[in-house]
Design a protein that fits this description.
heterodimer, A: alpha+beta, B: 598 residues, alpha+beta, five-stranded antiparallel beta sheet
């Protein structure tokens, strides 16, 4: 895999951000998970995709994961004919490793198989304003915001000590505010998206009411990305990318953020 | 003539030698442990492309009486090759209890002497366990199996060759593949072969299953027992000779009798085997080590090596090994002087190769840099690094107006490309799975939900605010004397008040009033930014005239000034109550002015 320019940053972010948790994942759990991963790969190579899915899911049952686990699980689901679950796991991997070329390729390939889906439908106007932030993890943006805050505070201290003139304060303040506002907005949007996005794992019908007897509003195809609005009595209210809302059975959708 | 005769003799000798070279002469017994009343069978078997031998005369065998049963012959032809087998069968009747040895037996075969190996036989008392077989022998002492491994300690990731051998000297069918628990190991496919082997003087048919195990965890493990299922074929009954009376001869009996055979399922278990899987040492691990364990070879080549800038070069790397190739990863090739395309990897038996297209961007590229492949050698128990290259190349500047050569199909996963500058094409199928599980993290971990992250944010913000406030105050104190005096006035006043109080408690009226006046003057001087030493009440009155102050305060100030002067210059003693009253007035004055004086 070719390493991009953010590779070192990404690894630094992971290391710094997870220092507090490093000791919480015991070494025997890691070793058992690595063993399950190897078995899953072996089953995948042998064409036993269901068996491979079982091994990868066993890792997730330990409440730990890596983007490689989600990626391989996505492949296994795709090969097993379950497009919705494949897209869901690719999206989960994408949240952790948005710059991996293989993952992007597989996600794009899987999306190309989704019925009636077009990436243009996402209406993702914020991402037109923040295009490069699609390449960053939410934690990376958080660290960038913190770094900008530290730089801003350092700038303020320097300005106070060096007795900056007013015009320099204005310029500094303008730049700092713009950068902070831009990244904080992107962070907020990305966090909200992560918390609310879901994938349709089985083709279903969206109803006007949370009732199987209610009128069907439209069909939601397997693999579609929707917005999870609220949950009630085994039904979930979702919003399609074009804004159309509807109620679907909870079993038909699953949040991208599994926590 | 003489020459021709010599030539013929030479040819005959060569032929006979050829015939003799492939001949074997083996002695086997039906059991190497029996009881006194149970005879065993001794077979002297000669095998070769041509066998010419008479009945073998047995030497005297201590502990046994021998009786000759007869000969047995067999021919077979496979792929035009003829094999003849001639056996002489004897019954050996034990005469006494003890351990005996059937000595080496000599026979003349095809005019040459051949000799067998001696065989040990034990004779036990009647009723003792005469049929006791070695500990791992199975059904009826005629079937057993075992796991064979070259050693008992391996490294994680090392390919472990495992052989499971099934021995039997009965009729067996439908033998299945061995099954055994292999937690902590990846198991490869089985291969098998059949042959014969003599064990403790008894000839067995052998089916050997071979596979490879790759350990994925460290620790002590128990392999097996391995279970092999099959069917025993045994004679259930023999029908009567229908011709009666004529069946006395063995020939007729065999010709007319009909026997029925039945199958009985049988399960054969091996003993378990303990293995220890060791972790790879951290010491000496090269930076580029990717997990290859075993014995490896690595080579790199490139073609063409004389080209124009912008033309493609096919870079080939090959890793060879008889061990575990799955964990062997090719070293990455990245160099700013080359444009690098995605590689294509092919797997072959005991090797894997990679082809990758690279394009020198200009004529300054003089060589393809060296790359290194590291692996852990399990025999030497240390890391080894093989470096291939650098490979010199000659890159000519591209003539102006020329178009670069097309990138070969291998650069784009088999899809044709029109020119060297084509964009990377995505494949029409999924890209393969990842081999490593990567860094495992708690599911759903987000920095924004961590309290320590927000503590850092708050600490940065409040720390900055505090630093600014303290710096500005410190700066003003250093540069604005008036502000500094006003800032320090209460602190200095508190000191003066303390001294005044001590003088009051010591009934030292002169010292009391001196300190009282000094404290008041110093405080007023600091607050009004004037010299306090020579301050008089008239000056104080003038300076405070514009302030909206309580007249009572001015009156108290005047009283203190007047009384202090009287006591200091008049040398009179003052009543302690008066001193206390003046002390409280001082406190009141300072407290009032601190709140109201601007």
């Amino acid at each position: 895999m070719r390493r991009g320019p953010f590779s070192i940053v990404k690894h630094l972010v992971l290391i710094i951000g997870l220092l507090a948790f490093a000791g919480c994942i015991k070494s025997d759990v890691k070793e058992a998970s690595a063993d399950l991963f190897s078995r899953g790969n072996h089953a995948y190579r042998s064409g036993e995709y269901k068996e491979a899915i079982g091994f990868y899911e066993d890792i997730l049952k330990k409440k730990i994961a890596s983007w490689e686990v989600y990626y391989n699980l996505g492949n296994a689901y795709y090969k097993d004919g379950r497009l919705g679950m494949a897209v869901l796991n690719y999206e989960r991997a994408f949240a952790i490793a948005p710059r991996d070329a293989d993952l992007r390729a597989n996600l794009k390939f899987a999306r190309s198989r989704i019925a009636n889906w077009s990436d243009e439908k996402t209406g993702i106007w914020p991402w037109r304003i923040f295009p490069h932030l699609d390449q960053l993890m939410i934690d990376e943006i958080a660290w960038m915001c913190l770094a900008l805050l530290v730089l801003t505070c350092a700038g303020i201290l320097i300005g106070v000590v060096r007795r900056w003139p007013l015009d320099r304060w204005i310029v500094f303040g303008f730049i700092a505010v713009i950068l902070l506002a831009y990244h904080l907005t992107a962070l907020t949007l990305k966090y909200q998206a992560r918390q609310s996005q879901a994938i349709v794992i089985t083709t279903t019908e969206a109803k006007f009411e949370p009732d199987a007897r209610a009128t069907t509003h439209y069909t939601l195809w397997e693999g579609w990305k929707v917005k999870w609005l609220k949950e009630s009595s085994g039904w979930v209210k979702i919003e399609r990318p074009d804004g159309a809302e509807g109620w679907v059975p909870k079993a038909a959708v699953e949040r991208i953020n599994p926590a | 003539m003489k020459r021709w005769l010599n030539f013929c003799i030479f040819i005959l000798l060569m032929v006979n030698t050829a015939f003799a070279a492939d001949l074997t002469f083996v002695a086997t017994v039906s059991a190497n442990k029996t009881s006194v009343n149970s005879p065993i069978q001794l077979s002297l078997t000669m095998t070769g492309s041509k066998v010419d031998a008479d009945q073998v005369e047995l030497p005297a065998i201590d502990g046994f009486e021998a009786r000759y049963l007869g000969p047995f012959q067999q021919f077979s032809m496979v792929n035009g090759q003829t094999t003849a087998t001639k056996s002489f069968i004897y019954s050996l009747f034990p005469q006494k209890v003890g351990k005996f040895q059937i000595p080496a037996i000599t026979a003349k075969i095809n005019g040459q002497d051949y000799q067998t190996q001696p065989i040990d036989v034990e004779v036990v008392e009647n009723g003792a366990d005469a049929g006791q077989a070695p500990a791992d022998r199975g059904v009826e002492g005629k079937i057993f199996s075992k796991i064979v491994m070259p050693k008992k300690e391996f490294f994680i990731g090392e390919s472990i060759p495992v052989s499971i051998k099934l021995y039997f000297n009965v009729e067996m069918q439908n033998v299945g593949y061995p099954q055994f628990q292999n937690d902590g190991f990846l198991k490869g496919d089985y291969h098998y072969k059949q042959f014969q082997e003599v064990v403790d003087g008894v000839q067995f048919k052998v089916v050997e299953f071979t596979t490879e195990l790759i350990p994925t965890r460290t620790g002590d493990f128990t392999l097996g027992p391995a279970t092999i299922e099959g069917s025993l074929l045994y004679q259930a009954s023999t029908n009567q000779d229908p011709f009666g009376g004529m069946g006395g001869d063995d020939f007729f009996k065999g010709f007319f009798s009909t026997a029925t055979y039945e199958r009985r399922p049988v399960t054969v278990n091996t003993d378990p085997v303990m293995v220890r899987i060791l972790p790879l040492p951290e010491e000496g691990k090269p930076a580029g080590f990717s997990g290859a364990v075993g014995k490896f070879g690595f080579e790199m080549s490139a073609s063409p090596t004389d080209l124009q800038a912008g033309d493609p070069i096919t870079l080939r790397m090959k890793i060879t090994s008889s061990g575990n190739l799955k964990t062997a990863e090719f070293p990455d090739f990245n160099n700013p002087q080359f444009k690098v395309y995605d590689p294509q990897v092919k797997e072959e038996p005991n090797a894997k190769s990679r082809e990758q297209v690279i394009i020198p961007l200009n004529e300054t590229a003089k060589e393809i840099p060296a790359v290194s492949f590291s692996y852990f050698d399990t025999e030497l128990k240390q890391y080894q690094t093989i470096t291939a290259g650098p490979l010199p190349i000659t890159v000519h500047p591209a003539p102006p107006g020329s178009s670069p050569a097309p990138v070969p199909a291998t650069a784009n996963g088999g899809q044709p490309a029109a020119a060297a500058q084509v964009h990377e094409q995505l494949g029409q199928d999924l890209i393969f799975i990842k081999e490593r599980s990567g860094t495992l993290v708690p599911i759903g971990f987000i920095l924004l939900t961590q309290s320590w992250f927000w503590l850092i944010v708050i600490a940065v913000i409040f720390g900055t605010i505090a630093a600014v406030i303290f710096y500005l105050r410190d700066y003003r104190l250093r540069t604005d004397r008036s502000f500094a005096r006003r800032f320090m006035a209460p602190k200095e006043a508190r000191k003066g008040i303390q001294e005044t109080k001590e003088a009051m408690e010591g009934h030292r009226s002169e010292a009391f009033y001196a300190s009282l006046l000094k404290t008041l003057k110093s405080y007023l001087g600091n607050k009004l930014n004037i010299s306090g030493g020579g301050l008089t009440y008239m000056e104080v009155e003038r300076l405070l005239a514009g302030q909206p102050l309580d007249p009572g305060i001015l009156k108290d100030i005047k009283e203190i000034f007047d009384t202090a002067d009287v006591v200091r210059y008049g040398a009179t003693r003052t009543d302690p109550l008066v001193m206390e009253s003046h002390f409280h007035k001082l406190q009141t004055i300072i407290d009032y002015l601190e709140r109201h004086l601007k």
